[in-house]
Design goal:
The chain is 37% helix and 17% strand. It is α/β, with parallel strands linked by helices. It has a seven-stranded parallel beta sheet, sandwiched between helices. Strands 7-10-12 form a three-stranded mixed beta sheet. It has a three-stranded mixed beta sheet with strand order 8-9-13, with helices on one face. A hairpin with a 5-residue loop joins strand 8 and strand 9. Helix 2 crosses helix 7, helix 5 packs parallel to helix 6 and helix 9 packs parallel to helix 12. The radius of gyration is 20 Å and the shape is globular.
Length: 347
């Protein structure tokens, strides 16, 4: 591998997706340039301690910084976030990567549900901007692949945060209340565990296979009821799903996040829309697909996820972590880090 081909640029390296790519890429010998907004972030400090990683701090609105970020780089993984003018930053990154000669650019995108005629679906603010950036990136002629992340397994917390609060009850059980239809499968992803290996395999397969392609980063399709069943089995205590068309908000949140939550509430609570909009590349999101078991009654789905949006991700990375394993092995540790003690008590 030449020096140029060995340089990988990663933007938003302290996020769950970006950090996963940094850790895995550094471990297999890439020369990693990891952009962060602040080196004081605990994840930035961890990444800076890794071999083969250079952490670059600064504003992505700084054109000189962005130019230097991509200099002589061959590959890039970009996940823009809603700090500053995200669309302007996304365009600047694509233009700079194109000018620098980046050969394979992977952008973490999301759908704009408002573009589907006759649906009346709202645009989800933090998703629709990514769709705008994806469209611009395609127009530049940059050789790119676009990945779409499912719901993060580790969104769940017993803290009173909206949408994914696993609220602990007086009897030691948990209740998850959300607008998702209880019996409709939705896509799930363990971002920290699985994004890195999947992205590296996309790079390895190359542009002949993935140029211009959209790939769902999701490894399971599970209904909310099924998620609670798997959490219950992992934690050995009752976990119940309550379908609520509105999102409970019990803490102070920024205005921008309020708009995001209200759009999600309408999209899923009112319209019961599919998570990725129209099925990606004709693949189904209507079958439940877990780790080798099929619950569809007709033998469909199965371990491979054949014919569903999880098929490509599973083909790219076979070592993915399902939500039951996450709930058993990781969720209690994250809860303990947040000061929770329920895992030390009898249910």
């Amino acid at each position: 591998m030449s020096t140029r081909k060995n340089i990988l640029v990663i933007v938003n390296s302290t996020g769950r997706q970006g950090a996963s790519v940094v850790r895995n890429a550094a471990a297999v010998g890439y020369t990693v340039r990891a952009h962060v907004s602040s080196k004081s972030h605990p994840v930035a400090q961890e990444l800076e301690s890794l071999q083969n990683v250079t952490v670059i701090e600064g504003s992505l609105e700084d054109r000189d910084l962005v130019k230097n970020l991509f200099a002589a780089a061959h590959r890039a993984f970009i996940n823009t976030v809603s700090f500053g003018d995200e669309v302007a930053i996304g365009r600047l990154l694509a233009d700079a990567a194109k000018k620098a000669g980046v050969q394979h650019y992977i952008y973490s995108s999301m759908p704009d549900h408002s573009v589907y005629e006759g649906k009346n679906w709202p645009a989800v603010p933090n998703w629709s901007v990514k769709s705008t950036i994806e469209n611009y990136t395609r127009q530049t002629g940059l050789t790119a692949t676009f990945v779409y992340a499912g719901i993060y397994n580790n969104n769940f917390t017993s803290l009173p945060y909206p949408l994914f609060c696993m609220k602990i009850q007086s009897d030691g059980s948990f209740v998850w209340k959300a607008p998702f239809h209880p019996n409709n499968p939705i896509p799930w992803l363990d971002a920290e565990h699985d994004v890195g290996p999947t992205v590296l395999q996309i790079f390895k397969d190359g542009l002949a296979k993935w140029s211009g392609h959209r790939i769902a980063l999701a490894f399971e399709l599970l209904t909310p009821v099924r998620v609670c069943l798997l959490f219950s089995r992992a934690l050995r205590r009752p976990v119940r799903y309550v379908h609520n068309p509105t999102i409970d908000i019990e803490v102070s949140i920024p205005n921008g996040y309020w708009d995001q939550l209200k759009a999600l509430e309408t999209l899923f609570g009112k319209y019961n829309a599919p998570y990725f909009g129209a099925d990606m590349d004709g693949c189904s999101t209507t079958k439940e697909v877990n780790d080798g078991q099929s619950w569809n009654g007709d033998g469909s789905g199965g371990a491979s996820g054949e014919g569903t949006v999880v098929e490509e991700a599973r083909a790219l990375w076979g070592g993915w972590r399902g939500i039951e394993e996450y709930a058993r092995e990781v969720f209690p540790l994250e809860e303990a880090a947040n000061g929770m003690t329920w895992m030390n008590e009898d249910a």
